[in-house]
Amino acid sequence: MTECREFFEALDGECRTQGAAIRGPRLRAMRGDREQRLIEWESQTASGFSPGPVSNHETIRKALYQGKEIVDGLLHRNSFLPLDTIGFSADRTSFTTDDECKARSAARASSETPLYGYIDVTVASLRERQCQKDETSVSERAIGIYDTAIKENVAHAEAFMIVRFSKTKPFKSIQADLMQEYQPRVTPY
Amino acid sequence: MLISPPEAVSSQTWGAPIFEERPVPAGASGSYPVYSVNLGTVCLSAGGAYFVYGIGNTAATMTETLLIEGRQPLTIAEVVPIQSHSASQLDRTIAALNQYRAATGESSLNPAADALQFLDALPKYLPSPKAARSDTGTITLFWNVDNFYADAEFLGDSKFSIFTRERVGNQTRDEVLEEEPIGQAGGTWLRTYLAPMFPRTLTAAA
């Protein structure tokens, strides 16, 4: 079993026994411990249910919920906050259908956060984001994407920050870049 | 037609609600309890009509939660034509924050309570922000006005952080203010960070 799969399967187990709140702190700690290896992990498979690692030419579909990722049709910077916290969950469009995506997303909606629509995010556009801690630092890859398939959804993928300094201005600027770039691509259901 | 809200769903917390009576759609029959009073919830009644709870939503994103006996609730945002009756952006933001605050309960970390305090301290001549809450409970108030974007972020530690982006052509300029005490919400940072949203008369006077 690869190191990547070992990590994500252990994380799933912890979430089941200790609750989903453990996810954010575990991902953050993992970033600190294994920063250098997280790019290698992208070419490993993260789950026994996965059809294979996520390639650059793929597109992932992110559901948008009113009051959470989108308000009155507008994205905001923290629409992309899960990149830094619990992981940015999405569906790989090559391994699912529009109807399946919509049904899965609708099942997670609530009266407080109804399903609004989605954005299709190109994997390459996330992987090409660079982060520079300060003006004297070298630019680094900022976001990794992993094939975190689950039994109920083999198309599941997850993106998150792979740099440690994620709460700083460079990360916030990346969030704002994504907001600006994907606002015109918001597709309401 | 606007009607008085049913007694069971009136609530001081959410401000002055607006209800609109609409016919029950085909397939939704029987007797329905009030489901919940949240932003945009549709409350099905027993009397052949249902009520759209209007505060906290714009027409473009009103939610209809249709509870049909024996089926799972279906919640999809859709357009409803009540824009003329809808509350102001400030009312909607306050309603959303009140809802988030109530959902957090008596926890010592209540980002929505901080956001409400922040909102109250903002000069009234600024445009009203929109409110969002993340899965991890972070509250964001944000503005998107012409070529200027700004947001205030609240984690519930009695502090706020500001991010702004000004767009000029293809160029962007980002500014960040980190972890200001909530007591400073009406302070001098406003003129530095939110100046593009100030009325021109005030900007000129400065």
Walk me through what this model shows.
- The complex is a heterodimer of chains A (189) and B (206).
- With 189 residues, chain A is an alpha+beta fold.
- Chain A has one domain (3-188).
- Chain A has 6 helices and 10 strands, in the order αααββββαβαββββαβ.
- With 206 residues, chain B is α+β, with helices and mostly antiparallel strands.
- A 5-stranded antiparallel β-sheet of chain B has the order 6-7-8-9-10. Chain B has a 3-stranded antiparallel β-sheet with strand order 1-3-2, with no helix packed on it. Chain B has a two-stranded antiparallel ribbon with strand order 4-5.
- The longest helix of chain B has 16 residues, at 89-104.
- Chain B is globular, with a radius of gyration of 20 Å.
- In chain B, 33% of the residues are buried.
- The chains are: A alpha+beta (189), B alpha+beta (206).
